[in-house]
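notes to self, project folder thing:

trying the whole complex as one job this time. last attempt i did each chain seperately and stitching them together was a nightmare. four parts in total, labels are on each line so i dont mix them up again. if this works i'll redo the older ones the same way
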Amino acid sequence: MGTDASGAADGRIPVTVLGATGSVGQRLVSLLEEHPWFRIVRLTASERSAGRAYEDAARWVLPSPIPRGVRGTIVEVTEVAGDVPLVFSALDSSVAGPVEEDFARAGAMVVSNAKNHRMDTVVPLLVPEVNPEHLDLLAAQDYGGGIVTNPNCSTIGLTLALAPLHRAFGVRKVHVVTLQAVSGAGLPGVSSLQLLDNVIPFISGEEEKIEIETRKILGSVRGSEVVYADITVSAQCTRVPVVDGHTLCVSVALDGDPSMDEVRAAWADFAALPHTVGLPSAPERPVVYVEEPDAPQPRLHRLLGGGMACSVGRLRPCPLLGLKFVTVSHNTVRGAAGGTLLCAEMLVAQDRVAGVEAPTRP
Amino acid sequence: MGTDASGAADGRIPVTVLGATGSVGQRLVSLLEEHPWFRIVRLTASERSAGRAYEDAARWVLPSPIPRGVRGTIVEVTEVAGDVPLVFSALDSSVAGPVEEDFARAGAMVVSNAKNHRMDTVVPLLVPEVNPEHLDLLAAQDYGGGIVTNPNCSTIGLTLALAPLHRAFGVRKVHVVTLQAVSGAGLPGVSSLQLLDNVIPFISGEEEKIEIETRKILGSVRGSEVVYADITVSAQCTRVPVVDGHTLCVSVALDGDPSMDEVRAAWADFAALPHTVGLPSAPERPVVYVEEPDAPQPRLHRLLGGGMACSVGRLRPCPLLGLKFVTVSHNTVRGAAGGTLLCAEMLVAQDRVAGVEAPTRP
Amino acid sequence: MGTDASGAADGRIPVTVLGATGSVGQRLVSLLEEHPWFRIVRLTASERSAGRAYEDAARWVLPSPIPRGVRGTIVEVTEVAGDVPLVFSALDSSVAGPVEEDFARAGAMVVSNAKNHRMDTVVPLLVPEVNPEHLDLLAAQDYGGGIVTNPNCSTIGLTLALAPLHRAFGVRKVHVVTLQAVSGAGLPGVSSLQLLDNVIPFISGEEEKIEIETRKILGSVRGSEVVYADITVSAQCTRVPVVDGHTLCVSVALDGDPSMDEVRAAWADFAALPHTVGLPSAPERPVVYVEEPDAPQPRLHRLLGGGMACSVGRLRPCPLLGLKFVTVSHNTVRGAAGGTLLCAEMLVAQDRVAGVEAPTRP
Amino acid sequence: MGTDASGAADGRIPVTVLGATGSVGQRLVSLLEEHPWFRIVRLTASERSAGRAYEDAARWVLPSPIPRGVRGTIVEVTEVAGDVPLVFSALDSSVAGPVEEDFARAGAMVVSNAKNHRMDTVVPLLVPEVNPEHLDLLAAQDYGGGIVTNPNCSTIGLTLALAPLHRAFGVRKVHVVTLQAVSGAGLPGVSSLQLLDNVIPFISGEEEKIEIETRKILGSVRGSEVVYADITVSAQCTRVPVVDGHTLCVSVALDGDPSMDEVRAAWADFAALPHTVGLPSAPERPVVYVEEPDAPQPRLHRLLGGGMACSVGRLRPCPLLGLKFVTVSHNTVRGAAGGTLLCAEMLVAQDRVAGVEAPTRP
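result (full assembly):
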C-alpha cells in the first residue's frame, strides 16, 4: 500500500502536515505518531520556524511528550514541494486559503482544519459519521488534487448529536449556547489575565460559523452542490476557564414530537460508517449518552472514545422548543486534529486519494 | 427615626440577621456595617455556632475584613427573642421555612433570601425596581409581622434585564442559559476537585426556579394574589469556575417586534423607584448597557453600581426568538445579600415595618 | 501463579481494596482493572456505601470511565472476611489504623496509603526505587500477615528526586516549598469558593510529614529498625488551583560540592530495582530530567512514565544551600494509588506475600 | 500648591503617565483619578495608540470602570513635551531606559516602575516605608530632574516584611519561593492555555531581581552610593493561576535568635514614615499580621490597606534558617502602580520635585 515519497518505505502512506508547530498541528503530529496507515514525511511552518528542528520550533503544549520520531525533523517553509499525495492543513486562516489551493493544484488531497474553504460550493464540509456522501462533491472540483474541510470545533459536536435526530425525526430549530475551552484559541490565544475567574461571552465569528455550517453538514448533495438543511439555528458562544472540551447547552424542535425514549433510542442506534468500515480513528460509538444527572462534563467526558466521541446527557423537555440536552466533545481532538485525521482516513478508505491504495483491513 | 430595641440608640433601626455565619450572612453583615439606616443588634446561627464570638463562628470568605463592630458579638441560636422589628434571613432552606414564620408571627417583618416562601400566594417575591407594587400582598398576610422574599440569584439579574422590555413591549418567550459562579453554592459548596478545568451543567432545582419565579415577578397583583405573567421561559443552568457573578445568555421574543435601538432605549430609560425614592443601596442605574463587543464579563462588570446593577451587552438578532443578549450580575450582592437589603429599604421607605419610621432623606 | 480466593481462577492474584469509593480508591480500582498480576475480588467502604453496586456507591471523579468489571460489584462493609492474601488500603486515616491491623492479624499483607502506621518502628515506609531493603523490617512484625505503607504524596516525589543525590553524594539539608494539587484533598476536599483565584498556604500536618518521612525513607535498616537519615528538612506547603500534580521547589545542600553536571549524571544513572526486576507499574526511568527552561509543569509532565515518574528541571545554583531545582510528580498516581500498587508488586516479586507466588516474567 | 502646566488650575499637581495603556498604566490612571494631590494632564503610549481616545486605546482589564475624566483624553506618543514636573513611567522595559533619561534631562522628576534604572548607582530603589533615606542619592544625579524607581513586584512585599526584622535584629539569610499572580505579566502575558490547571515554575529574570534588589533596598546610603545589605538571598519564582496578589513562602535567619513573640512585636511596632507624614496612599499599617492558621491568602488579603499593605502570617520555626512565614501583597497595586504613586507622594512631601510645593496637610 501507499506511495512513499521519501524513499523510506514501511508501507504506510506518507503525509505532510502544514502549520505543524501550532496547537492543532501539535495534536495532529501527536496522533500521527503511531498511526497504522499514515507516516509523517514533512512538517511545515512559517519562515520564522523553518530550518529549525521540530522540537525547537514548536512550543509544545500537550501533556504527552513530543513524539521521538519528529523531534529532530527539520521544519520546512510552507510551500509546495515534492510529491506527497496527502496533506493535512493546520494552517492559520490568515494564510490557509491560497496555500491549500496551491497544494490541491499540485495534485495533493488537502484535508484542512482551517475555515477558509469550508463554505465553498464544491468543498465537502465533512463529519465522516454524518455526511460521508458529501465527498461526492470532489468530482466537481477541478484542482487536480482536492480540498476537504473539517468543520468548526463547536459545530462538529453539535452535528454529531443532531445527526441521529435529524435522520430519525427531522430537526427544525436549534438553540445552542457554547461554553468553549481555551485550547481552541491556540497560542497565545486568550490571556490568563482575561480568563481567570471570568467568562468571555464572545468569540469572533463563531456564532455565524455554527449557524451556517450546521445547515451545510446536515444538508444533502444534489448534483455538484449541497442543499442546505432547512433548520433555523441560533448560537451564543462563550469562552470559559476550561483547558479542553466544549460544552453545549442545546434546545431543539423536532418533527413529529418524539418521546424522550425515542430520542435516546435514536442516539443509541446511530450506526456510523467510519466505525463500520474500520477507520482507525473512528470511535466505536460516536454519540454516547451519559446517565449521571450532572453529566456530561468536559473534564470527565472529553476523552470518551479516545477524545473522538460526543457525549450527551441531561435530555429533558424544553418549554420552548420541545427538548433540551447537553453535549461535550473534545475541541482539539474530535473538533480539530482527530476530526481532520478521520476525514483523511475516510478519503483513503473510499479510494479518493490519487496514487494511494486503501489499506486492507485485518 | 427608628425604634431601638437594644437600648443603644444612634437613631438607626435595629436589625437581626438569621444565619449570619454562612456566605450570604457574611455579605449581609458586611453590607450592614456602615449602613445609614440599619444597625445590627443580633446575629444568629445554628447551635454549633451559638455562644461563640462572631469572628470565631464564621469561616470568613470575603475579601474585605470582618467588620470590627461585630467581631466580638456573641452569636445566638436562631429562635425568636426580644422585640426586633426587622429581621434578615440568610438561613439555609433546610430550616428557613418554619423559623421565618415564627419570627413573622412574633411581629417581625422578615426579609428572606431563602426559597421556602417565595412561591406562597401572599408572599411578595420582590425585586424593588421591578415589582414594588407586589408589596400590597402583605395586607393579605395574617402573621402579625410579615414575610417578603428575595428571588433566586439568577432570576434577579434576568428580571432586571427583562422588566424594561416587558414594560415597553411585552415579553412572550425567554430562553436563558446561565453560567453561574461558585459563591452561590456557599461552603463547602462545589469541590474544587469537581470544578477546576471543568463545567458542571446542572444545579439542582435552579432551572425550575428561574422558569417559575420570572413569571411571578413579572406578573401583576390583583386583589390578594399575583397573576403570573404569560411568558414561556426555558432555562439551562451550568456552574463555571468563576468566584462571583452570574453570566446569562438570553434570547427573547417580544411583542411588536421593536428595533434594537428601541430595546436599548427601553433599558436606558428604565427609571426605577428604589433610586427615585433614595434607597441607600439602590444603584443609580439598575440596568447598564456595556458597549464593548466582548462585554459584559463577570470579573469586569460584577461590581458595577456597587454590585447592585445588572450589566447587559451584545444585543443582536436571534434567528429563533428575535433578539439575544448577555447579562452579568453579582450573585451574592445583587443576587442575595444586597438584594435582600434593598427589599428591606423599600419596606421601610414605604412605612411597611411596624414601629419603624422611614428615615428622612437629606 | 496466585491463590484464587474467589474460585474464579484466571491465574491472577486476588486482591481486596479497602475504602474503594474515595478518590484514592477510585484510582486504585482504575489501575487494577487490567493489571497483569492482580485481580479485584472484593471492594469495601463505609456502612453508608455497603450493599450498593460500586458504580452507585462511588462518586466517580476520574476522566476515564468506571471499569466495566467492577460497576456491578456489590460494595461490602470494611471488615475482615474470607481469605484474601493481599489487601490495598485506601482508607481514611480516621479509621485506617485498627482496621489495617485487623487485616494483618488475619494473615493479609496490607499495603496502605494511609498515614496511620507510617512511623511505626517495624513498618516499612516504602518507595520501591529508593529503599526496597526496608522490607526486611517485615520480619520483625508479629501480625501474621504484615503492613507496608506508602508515603505522603509530596514525600514520594521529593525522595525520588533526592535518592540518587543521597546515594551519590549525601544529602545534608533540604528546603522544600510545595504547590499541591487539589486531588490530594479528596472529596469534598477544598471548596472551589476557597481555591479559585487563590492560594491556600497551609495543609494540615503536611509539613511535619514531609520533614520526618523523608528522613525515614532515606534512612538505613539496622536490625529491626530504621536509622533515620541525618538530614535537616524544612517544608512549606501550599494548595494551588491545579487538579493533579504536585510541584516542589527544592533547595539542597550536598556533601562534597558536586558540579551541576555530576548531579544531572546522578539522576540520569539512577538504576532502580522496580524496573530491573520487571514490576508492571515501574516506570522505565523513575527520575526524568526535563530540559525546557520553564519545566517541569504539572499539566505537561504529571503523566510522564504513566504518572509514575518524577520529573525534575531547572537545576541551578542556590546562594544559600548550593543547588536548587523543581520537581513535579502525580499525587494520586505516583503519590497514592500507583505508588501503593508498586509497593505491592515489589512485595510479590520478593515472595513476601504468604501463599502467593511471584509471577514468572516473560 | 502645585504648578499647573496645563493652565487648568484646581490646585493639584499636574502629572504625566508614560505607557498609560498597559496594565500598570491602567492601575496608575485609576488610582490617580481622585487623587488629592495629583491631576493627570497627559497620557502617553506607543505610536500605535497615539492619537486615539484613551478609552479606545486602552484594552481595559480592571474591574472598576475607566475613569470618566480620561475616557476622551487623546493619547500622545511617548516623548518629551511641555513642562510637566512629575512623570510616572509605566513603560515596558524594552523602551523605558533612554526615554526616562530624556524626561529627567528635560527637568522632570521621573518615578518609574520599569526595571531599567533600578540598579543604577545613584538611582534610589525606593520602598517609602523601608528606605526613604535613599532619596538622598538624588543629589548625586546630574539629570536636571531625576529618576526614582519602584522595585520588582515581589521584592516590595518581601522587603516590607523583612524591614522591621532587619531594623530590630538584622537579617542574615533569606530563602523565598514566590507564587505569583498573572496580572504582573500584563497583556497578553501568560496564555490561559499555558496556565489553567497548571503552575509555571519560571519567570524570566525574576529570581535575579529579587536576590539583588532586596540587598539594595535594605542597604544603607553612604555618600552618593548604597552599601548593599550583607544578606544572602535565594529566590525561586513560580506563576500560579491567581489574578492578583503574590504569595511568598519565606524562611529567614536573623541575628540574635529572637523569639517568635519578639518577631511579631517587631512587625506590630513598625512605624513607617509614609503614614506618619500623611501620604495619601500610605496604609495605616504597612505590615499586618493575620492570625488565621491558613492565612494570608491572595484573594482574601490582597486588598488589605487598600491594596497597599503587606499581610504576613504563619510565623513558625524553620529547622534550617530559624523562622518561616508567608506574605501576600497586591502585585499591581502595592507592587506596581500604588507603590509608584507612594514614591511620588514621598518625593513631593520632602520637597524634592522642582517647582512643586508640598501640599499642606489638613
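what i see at first glance: Residues 120 and 225 of chain A are 10 Å apart (CA to CA).
need to look closer tmrw
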